[in-house]
Amino acid sequence: MKTNNEKGFALISIYLVIIGVTAITMATWSKSFIEVRQVDRELARVRGYAAAEAGLQSGMAQIGANAYTGFINTSSINVANFQSATGQTVGSFVVEMQYPDQADWVIVQTTGTVNNEMRTLEGRVFLDSNLSKYLVYADTANFGSGDNAQYGEPDNTDNDGNGFPDYPEKVPANEDERAAMYFTGDWTISGANVHLYGDSHAQGVVDGNVTSKVHGDTYVSTFAQNSSGQVTNSGVLGGLPVMDGFADDTDRNQDSLINSSDFPDRHDLTATGDGDAHPTESLVSIDHNFYAAHNNIPGFAGGSIKDRFLKFEAINNGAATRVVEYTNANYTNQVGTFTLPNNAIVYVKGDIYAKGEIGGRVSVVSSDDIFFENNLTYAAAAVKADPSHSTAFLAKDKLYFKAGNLSVSGILYAENSAGGTAFDASQGAAKQKLRLYGNRVMKGVTNLSLYPDRVYAYDNQLKLYRPPGIPVVPDLRLVRDAT
Fold it and tell me: How confident is the prediction for the chain on average, in pLDDT?
């Protein structure tokens, strides 16, 4: 027979077991609750990252909307109710954009928030344009180069002081720093002593001779190799030497040697640009309606066609430009004076006859031809662009180079609709020396070989600091988690 003490002990034991089970249950529940909270928090962070990525894409779309015009909208974006594809509310995102010096990139910072969990991404959107990317971009079946043409400038930098250039062929190792030429057809070097200090790209072939040289690489769409890596067509004809001087080529045929059998410095030009190849490109015609609508001298885009004789004068210590109009190419009888803002577009319905100096960033556009009567460079006779100075001369038909000794800076564009001569030196004084500092873009061909002494100098600053209204293509290349 059990005593009362035994009954009490049994009851206490039961209570202790219940307390123990309860404690274990509570601990297990608490751990599970914490784990669920951690899972929920991590899920919110993942969703926050997705919201931040959506913010990046929204920023890209906003930049791309006006990219063709060269005007970039950097206004903030605030989406308080970001929804999934199924319509479920996910969270929110905020996008802030910076366009430093209106250069070739936009910094996009986006923060996504889900259940008070924030993720921040920072992206850099680069703005590419084949109007400002190439020393020469020629949309023609065959681009010819006559005697003594020099494309780009040799880099004679001697940092170690040994009396020799740092670069074997006087072109930088970084291809983004080199001059580059692009042809939608063939590049035919018919003359002697033609030198390119940079890279060439041809959708056809590059045909030259042993007296000339590409001091860089070639990218040719006819380049071909078999399954063993043997090059069956380098796309370079006539014995033209091609060499950048750097030991950075691949063993194409995998024979443990890098030699002439591997065709060093010769590469493929393809639609995708995978691997050792560069991508092909196409040129979009400029929109004259846009330039006419954004003209800073409205009277020049009037209803009737009228030729304008213009002298450009840099003012405000080179920060802006004053345009002085004359009645004829003698520049003796002044008609009017127009002061432009720091960033300006001058559109003329008719021909433009021009000379002088440019201050600020200015795009000069003609519905027909542009005639360079004399030198047209930047303030204080500077020839290359910087954050405060850049210019473009865009002609619907031709660019005429008239002076016997002539220097012109900037992006030079002509789209001869008949497919003939786009850059024409047949008019004006007897030709002696030509210096072009910048980028030439054309639909058609040139006869600038009428100048016996000519140098086409690449200006990589135009890729960074474009004049207003130059069409660009946004490309998101760099993204980092800035949380």
Answer: 89
